[in-house]
Amino acid sequence: MLHIAMxxxxxxxxxxxxxxxxxxxxxxxxxxxxxxxLGTLFxxxxxxxxxxxxxxxxxxxxxxxxxxxxxxxxxxxSVGFFWLTTIPAILIGMGFMTVALRFSPEVTxxxxxxVATPELPGMVDFLLRLIPTNPFAxxxxxxxxxxxxxxxxFAAAASTLETAxxxxxxxxxxxxxxxxxxxxxxxxxxxxxxxxGLAAPVTAQTGWxxxxxxxxFVVTVIxxxxxxxxxxxxxxxxxxxxxxPSRFLRGxxxxxxxxxxxxxxxxxLPVMLTESQENLDVSPPIANFTLSLGAxxxxxxxxxxQGASVVFVASIFDVTxxxxxxxxxxxxxxxxxxxxxxxxxxxxxxxxxxxxAVGAPLAGLGVLLGVDRIPDMFRSATNMLGHMSAAVVVDxxxxxxxxxxxxxxxxxPGAVSSEAGPPGG
Length: 425
What we know:
Elements: H1 2-23, H2 26-34, H3 36-63, H4 68-100, H5 123-128, H6 135-140, H7 144-158, H8 163-188, H9 191-213, H10 215-239, H11 245-251, H12 253-262, H13 265-278, H14 284-297, H15 300-316, H16 323-338, H17 346-349, H18 352-358, H19 364-371, H20 373-400, H21 417-420
């Protein structure tokens, strides 16, 4: 029921926004803009739970393993999956958009504003920033990746303690994780109103004219995402994870639906934890670790969108991109995708360094923001399926080398979801 209610809220927001844009009624436009704070409150409610939920779930998953060697293998397999699937996503996005632009009508850009370029760290800085000088400061700043690194190291140390001491810490993390999962579900039940508040003002501002002029861009991104899932995720699930694509898709429908409507990995995390264990039989420690890490850094869907966006924005501003600059854009998108926050439309802001790499004006971000809600939903659903694919693949790899033990009783934050709330419906 939850994902159906969110779908209704989204549809209502889109229809209301289109009606306001089509009629030009000042009253309807004022109402559409007036409901924007409802969407803001919904997003802030999700952000409120990000840090403690991720820390609790990652700690529980790693500490429960009891063998630090399992942490190393699980981390290596997880990060390897995320990185290796991000590269083809970028190339598919760029390639599909290059072809699609040959059949695209001319797009006229007007009335856009420049956006400041956020600093993108180089390789050395990126690696240095993985180790936080102060984990509490990292938490306060919302820096998820350094906090994940600290939590994994802390949990690995805890896994070497005596059994009684380790179990006390794990039980505490389980209780904290269960409480925050419950809180996330409370936030999600406000989702229909929050999604309405996100969709209505955006649609009212852009109207049909902008949606039509950018239809090729939106449709191409959606097709690219579907092709990416079919050519990358599903074969990996089948060949490495040992699971049929049909079972995987049936078992992940709640995850994809909640991700589609909320466009947030963190909001979808409780549903992912539930479905990965109950529907896909992924070991609880592997699910807790891989899904939480994926919610922090796995953004292949966002990378595909960003790759397509670079080509599209360069085209509408008539910027010729040499091959060397395009290679730089691929690298920029790769690192930018790793820093995308698990909240709606974050892919737009981190796209600026890639646009700068090809010499495209940052004003193009304003154009993309106008129609981002639609591709944001599809790329978010793709990201969620990527998290679930990673859990299945890592579970399959660890099972093959004999280290896929889910722990003594399979308990953990992901196992309390039947009490915390419905799995995406």
